[in-house]
Design brief:
Blueprint lengths: L1 E7 L2 E7 L7 H15 L4 H23 L4 H12 L18 E5 L1 H6 L9 H12 L5 E5 L16 H11 L3 E5 L10 H9 L3 E3 L12 E3 L5 H10 L1 H7 L4 H4 L10 H8 L3 H9 L7 H4 L6 E3 L2 H4 L1 H4 L3 E3 L1 E3 L2 E3 L9 E6 L6 E4 L2 E4 H14 L6 H37 L6 H41 L7 H11 L18 H8 L1 H19 L1
Helix pairs in contact: 1-17, 2-17, 2-19, 2-20, 2-21, 5-6, 8-9, 8-16, 11-12, 17-18, 17-19, 18-19, 20-21
Length: 525
């Protein structure tokens, strides 16, 4: 029995209060689970709160992705994936039917065959191209600047290398050269026009790099991979593999890429203008329409650049009987890319780690054959809302659990007349609650790491979904509910869920909901 004293007039009266019955052992053992379940109990108001918050974040991400604002984060996520083990673990190459061969001038070849001289010795390049052409390849895509060097400009029309290129084109070999570096007073433009007249094709060597990582391939620009793929498989197959989006095909005209640069070279008198327009999407319209990057690009398929599939197609340039060439037993392919890999400045970050520009051109060719596409943005929007609500419930429950534990110890600390054992227990509980707080703050990082790992499965299919903003946004959103553990809102009978939310969280109704609708309209426009 517990005896209490109360004062009545001038007398002190002792009263008694029966002891509270101690809960049974099974209930005491289940108490943590009961508290955990109670923390995650949702009402309609809480659920609507999370739906509006997730819709706001999903609409914001949709709008920012359309404006290419989040590309830096996509690149950071790709670099994080590239720092881990190889992405793919397959025994079969999904792009084997389209994968070209690669003849590369690596660092040993640069030292032994070209004596570390730049520009590369033209006689050696002539021997290399002749050796590659003798292997019967239909298309030679040459990622080397073959324009006359300064010391050769007085030999216009007399270079053995030019005669070899023209002769190969005349015999039906499909050659694709990259646009050379811009020269003073447009000195290279006559050479470009002469090679075009001989039936040689030109392409832009540029690789689209987004915020430090290569994530996409060009579909409708005359870049090296797109032109070589069209020459090897035809414009119809290229369009079938990577068609123009239906929403844009009505207003944009797809033109064959192989002759595009030569057509521009005949019309322009400036190498600068030629290089700029060669990289623009081939569409009908002005430069503003050409800025629609996502309409004419597609995700880079990671299988195309996977080392286990890419490395077997590589052949190093060697000296044989004093001539530059490749081994007779090297891999023979219908399409061959020739270029250099010794320059560390010509390297890019991909989902499979750092890759040389030559390898990316060849991998882009393979990716065009495999075919990739962006995830439907409306499907992503709906998925973001569903996942966001689940994350909101999880983070909200964690914050509620921590808040209740903190409230309980605060009430216990108000009692100063406690035994030493009680004080020690309270101190242990205090540090335990702080440990819970650390775990709550660590939860979005753990979930983010798991989401990145799981998203690699989508990346294998050529899709990339960035989970970072949604996880961070819903974690911060759930923090707005943490005070309800200390000051819970009373439910008013008869009020609808919307009216209850407007009474307890007016900012959600008056600010976040209209803002979500506005951002969605901006994203759709």
């Amino acid at each position: 029995m517990i005896f209490l004293q109360r004062t009545q007039g001038e007398r002190t009266v002792e009263t008694s209060q029966p002891d509270q019955p101690r809960p049974p052992l099974w209930r005491r053992l289940l108490w943590p689970a009961v508290q955990l379940g109670s923390a995650f109990k949702l009402t309609g108001t809480h659920l609507l709160h999370h739906v509006i918050g997730a819709s706001l974040i999903a609409a914001l991400m949709l709008a920012l992705e359309g404006l290419h604002v989040l590309e830096w984060l996509d690149a950071a996520m790709l670099r994080a994936s590239a720092a881990q083990e190889q992405l793919l673990d397959r025994g079969k190459d999904p792009g084997a039917a389209y994968r070209p061969g690669i003849i590369e001038i690596d660092q040993p070849a640069f030292e032994q065959v070209f004596d570390e001289r730049e520009p590369l010795e033209r006689s050696r390049l002539e021997q290399l191209i002749a050796s590659a052409a003798a292997r019967g390849s239909k298309v030679l895509a040459i990622d080397l600047d073959l324009a006359p060097a300064v010391y050769e400009q007085h030999k216009a029309g007399e270079r053995p290398l030019d005669r070899l290129l023209d002769r190969l084109a005349a015999h039906g070999r499909q050659l694709v050269l990259i646009l050379p570096e811009q020269s003073d007073q447009n000195a290279n433009l006559p050479w470009i026009r002469a090679r075009c007249a001989a039936g040689i094709h030109f392409a832009s060597p540029r690789i689209r790099e987004r915020m430090g990582a290569v994530t996409r391939i060009e579909l409708k620009s005359p870049v090296l991979a797109a032109v070589a793929f069209e020459l090897a498989h035809g414009a119809d197959e290229q369009e079938q593999k990577q068609p123009m989006p239906a929403a844009l095909s009505e207003q944009k005209e797809v033109v064959a890429l192989a002759g595009r640069v030569c057509q521009l070279a005949r019309r322009t008198g400036s190498e600068k203008e030629l290089a700029r327009w060669a990289f623009e999407p081939v569409i009908r319209g002005d430069a503003k329409a050409a800025a629609e990057q996502n309409a004419v690009t597609a995700p880079f398929h990671p299988a195309a650049v996977a080392p286990q599939f890419l490395h077997p197609t590589r052949t190093r340039v060697k000296l044989s009987d004093g001539q530059a060439g490749v081994d007779a037993g090297a891999l023979r392919k219908n399409v061959v890319y020739i270029g250099s890999t010794y320059d560390v400045r010509d390297r890019y970050t991909t989902a499979e780690g750092e890759q040389a520009g030559l390898h990316l051109h060849a991998a882009a060719h393979t990716s065009l054959g495999i075919g990739t596409a962006d995830v439907n943005k409306y499907a992503v929007f709906v998925a973001d809302i569903v996942i966001g609500v689940l994350l909101g419930c999880l983070f909200g429950g964690l914050w509620t659990l921590y808040g209740r534990a903190e409230l309980a110890i605060d009430k216990r600390m108000e009692d100063h007349d406690v035994s030493r054992l009680h004080r020690m227990g309270t101190l242990a509980e205090f540090y335990g609650i702080r440990l819970i707080l650390v775990l709550v703050w660590a939860s979005p990082f753990a979930i983010g790491a798991l989401a990145i790992y799981l998203s690699r499965g989508l990346l294998e299919q050529g899709w990339w979904v960035n989970p970072g903003p949604l996880i961070a946004g819903m974690f911060l959103h759930a923090m707005s509910l943490r005070d309800e553990a200390h000051h819970p809102h009373e439910e008013v009978p008869g009020l609808s869920v919307w009216a209850q939310l407007r009474r307890t969280h007016p900012g959600i109704v008056l600010v976040q909901a209209p803002l979500a609708v506005l951002l969605l309209i901006i994203a759709l426009i």
